[in-house]
C-alpha cells in the first residue's frame, strides 16, 4: 500500500497498525496535510448490509465535533474496503503512556479523566455510545490533550436503539457485565469501562487477570470489583467514584457522564466510604412482586375430625360364625397398580423437564462439525457460517457465535458461527524502485521477522530496491518466511593511486579517463620533484565515485637564488677621425654641417644574457649617455662591453655586492 493513492486523494505513506481496521499515515495531496486513513474490510458475504451499517456509523461520527474527540475528515468506500479519514494526533495512546509513566500523580489522573469524560459526554448528548472505551482508544497529543478515537464504530441510538442482545462489542479487559452477557447497553456501559480505565490510571494494572478472554469476561460478570486500596492509597472520594462506576448492575452506576464529572470535581470533599449495592437489595429493586394473600390457618374447631371406623357386618358376626375364606389376589393387584401409579407420579414430578430454552455453551475453538453435533443435541440449528482470518485461532476453529455463549436460546433457534481461516496471508507488493528502509519497515510492521538485503552497485541511488525474492502478488505468511531484496549500493567507486612524482600531464590523462576531475590548486618550488611533476594530491589513495575531484600541487622545480638588478649609466663617446676633421675645405663652417651617425653595439653578460651576443644596438651622432641593466644572482659576477663602429670603447666587470 505504501505509495498508493486511495480515493484519488490520499497517498499512503506509512503503516501504523491494525485492529478492527488497517491504519495508515497518509498525505492529503489536495490540501497538502497529514491524515490517518483507516481501511475497514467490507463484509464480502453481505455487501449491501455492510455498506448500510457503515453509512450509519459514519453518520454518527459526523455529529461529533469536540476538542477531546478525534475529528473525522472524510469517508469513502471501495468494492473491498470502507475508508475512514481522520485527523492525525501526534503522540502516544494512553496505554503506552501508562506503561511508561506509571504510577501517575493523582492530579494528572483527574485531568486525563475529566477530558475523557467531556468527550464521552459530548457523544452521549448526541445519542452515541462508544462501547469500546479503553486506554488504547485514548490518544494524547503533543500538548497532553485527550483525543478519543474510534467513535466511528459506534451506532446512533436513534437508529439502532441499543446493541442487540447477541452482540458484544469492546475489549474484554474493559467490557461491562451487560456487554459480556450480550444484553442491552446504554450510556452506563461507557461509564463502567471508564471506571476500569480510571482504576488502571491510578494503579498501573488491570482489575481482572485470567488466561483466557472468556475467563476475564466471566470475572466482570460475577466477581466483585477489586478494592483499589490494596494497590494504592487514594482519597475516599476517588475510590467511591471507581466503585460506583463499576457496579455490576447498570442501574446502580452513575446515569450520565456529567454525573461522574461532578463527582470528580468534589471528590476531595467526600469522607464517607461508598457502600456497594448487594445482590439481594438489587433483586428487590429490580423485581416488584404483587403481595401474596395468605389463607388464614383454620382453628381447631374447623379442623377435620377423625374419621370413625365402622366395622363391617361380617366382622360384627365374626363371633357368631367362622369367617369365610376370601380371595386375596384382587387386593394384591390393586396395591400393585396403586404403587405403579404413585411411582409414575413421583417420576413425573421429579424427572427434569426439558426447558424451552438452552443456555448456549462456549463453542470457541471447536470445529463446525463438533458445534453442529452439539446444536443438534440441544434442538438448535446452525445458522449462517462465515469465515475470516484470525491469528489467534487455528484454521477451521470457531472464533465466536451469535448469540454469544451463555445466552438463553429458544429450542429450534439458529446459531451463527464465525470460523477462522487461520493467519491471514500477506500479498506481496512490488517494491522494486522503492527504498529498502521503507519496504523493510512496512514488512516488519506486517509481522515479517526475516527480512534482509543483498547489496550491489548500480546507477540507481543507494538504498533503492533492484529486485525481490518474492514476486509481486504471491501470498505468504509473515512469521519466519524469508524475504530478500537486492539493494543498490549506488555507483561503484573507482580506486586511485598516488601520483606524486608523476608529470601532471600523465596523471591528468589517466585520472580523467576514469571519470575524475583534476584540479591544480597551486604550484610550488621543489628541490626534490622535477618541474611540472605532482608534489602532492588529495585524496592520495582509496576508492572514490567517478566525478570526484582530485586536487594536486605541481612543482616549479628548484627555487632560483636571490637576484639583484644593477642599473649602469654609460657615457658612449662619439668617435673623431682625421678625414672628418681635415676634409673641411668645402665645409668650413662646422656649425652648419651634420655629424654622420655611427653604430653602437652593447654586450651584456649576466643571469639572462650572454656576453658573446649583442644585447642592444643603437646609433649615435654625438657623445651619448645610455643606461643598461645587469641581473646578478648571489655569488655571480657580470660584465658589459660597448663597441662603436666595431671598436671596443668600454669594457667592465661587475661583482654582486
UniProtKB/TrEMBL annotation:
InterPro entries: Atg1-like (IPR045269), Kinase-like_dom_sf (IPR011009), PASTA_dom (IPR005543), Prot_kinase_dom (IPR000719), Ser/Thr_kinase_AS (IPR008271). It comes from Jeotgalicoccus halotolerans. Residues 584-599 have a biased composition (Acidic residues). It is an enzyme of class 2 (transferase). PROSITE patterns: PASTA (PS51178), PROTEIN_KINASE_DOM (PS50011), PROTEIN_KINASE_ST (PS00108). This is non-specific serine/threonine protein kinase. It catalyses: L-seryl-[protein] + ATP = O-phospho-L-seryl-[protein] + ADP + H(+); L-threonyl-[protein] + ATP = O-phospho-L-threonyl-[protein] + ADP + H(+). One of its GO terms (cellular component) is cytoplasm. Residues 310-322 have a biased composition (Basic and acidic residues). Residues 354-421, 422-489, 490-556 form the PASTA domain. The keyword Oxidoreductase does not apply. Keywords: ATP-binding, Kinase, Membrane, Nucleotide-binding, Serine/threonine-protein kinase, Transferase, Transmembrane, Transmembrane helix. The keyword Magnesium does not apply. Its EC number is 2.7.11.1.
